[in-house]
Design brief:
By secondary structure, this protein is α/β, with parallel strands linked by helices. It contains eleven helices and eight strands.
């Protein structure tokens, strides 16, 4: 643990950080998160799945994705995963949970290395990346050896927001999803994001603080943009969406985001399960080496997806 701590860059002052400082910080931090040394925190991948990087050709860009394949053959279910972090983070930090999902569902899990937020790249870019990869893989199901009738989305933190938006867009586009899994999702980027009890109670936790949240919102929504359009909590119609599992660590400034979104989904008639993990902190699922709650949460996610993706 101490070796990993020494490897990590100093966290900048989010109220004054410059573009150059942000890029330097996230590049250094992502190198650590993707390293084998970090697995003492991020967990060891399941040997029952292969892991590789691939490029996806999307309109106007190519995007890297991290692909987890089980040993099983044939057209398998698809899980599109979106990692957390918003302006820092990499799909490689989620190898533990995604490789286990791939091996034990079994399924092809594709984690989107979405564009990270900065002063030139708003949240809408990451949202488009999640949706475009989902649509592309489903449309090219034969190339990816997946069953387009058995598809789920799965996201953590900011990736939970991207996945929730993808589920809403899938319904509008007529793309059938079987399930959505949202782990500590940040589903409100409007001014009401600061009004929740959990934000006050857990304003300065080791993995997420209000200062960092305010910086995230500043990058996410350019001046004049509609924050509600990128806040699933304020979506007009949540009826008829894929069944949802909303996983909420309780010691998290945005715990109430997940709770309120689960309430809205349930009120709209979308089958929804809210599962809370007492004393777990934000981002716990990507840190099984430090958060014992990650293992039962992973088991719950696998069981939920297995049920939803069964033939």
């Amino acid at each position: 643990m101490n070796d990993i701590t020494a490897m990590r860059p100093a966290v900048p002052d989010w109220s004054t950080v410059t573009a150059e400082e942000l890029i330097a910080y996230r590049d250094a931090e992502n190198r650590v998160r993707a390293s084998t040394a970090a697995r003492v925190i991020t967990g060891e991948p399941d040997p029952g799945a292969t892991i590789s990087w691939q490029q996806v050709a999307l309109p106007g860009r190519e995007l890297p994705v991290r692909v987890y394949r089980p040993l099983a053959a044939g057209a398998l279910p698809l899980v599109i995963h979106v990692h957390g972090g918003a302006f820092v983070g990499t799909a490689a930090q989620c190898d533990w949970v995604n490789s286990h999902l791939a091996a034990h569902l079994p399924a092809v899990v594709i984690s989107v290395e979405h564009r990270l937020l900065d002063w030139e790249t708003p949240l809408s870019a990451a949202a488009d990346d999640g949706w475009d990869v989902l649509r592309h893989v489903v449309e090219h199901a034969g190339t990816w050896d997946i069953d387009p009738a058995r598809v789920a989305v799965f996201g953590e933190s900011g990736g939970g927001l991207v996945s929730a938006l993808a589920a809403i867009r899938a319904k509008r586009a007529g793309l059938g999803l079987r399930a959505q899994v949202l782990v500590n999702p940040a589903v409100d980027v409007t001014s009401t994001a600061w009004t929740y009890d959990s934000t006050t109670q857990y304003a300065d936790t080791p993995t997420l603080s209000v200062a960092l949240l305010r910086f995230f919102q500043r990058l996410a929504i350019p001046e004049g943009a509609d924050a509600r359009a990128l806040s699933p909590l304020y979506a007009d119609d949540l009826n008829g969406l894929a069944p949802a599992l909303v996983v909420v660590p309780t010691a998290d400034p945005i715990a109430d985001h997940g709770r309120r979104y689960a309430e809205r989904l349930q009120a709209a008639g979308t089958p929804t399960r809210l599962s809370e993990y007492p004393e777990a902190g934000h981002g716990f699922l990507s840190m099984p080496g430090m958060a014992p709650e990650a293992t039962p949460a992973r088991a719950e996610i696998i069981a939920f997806l297995r049920e939803c993706l069964s033939e």
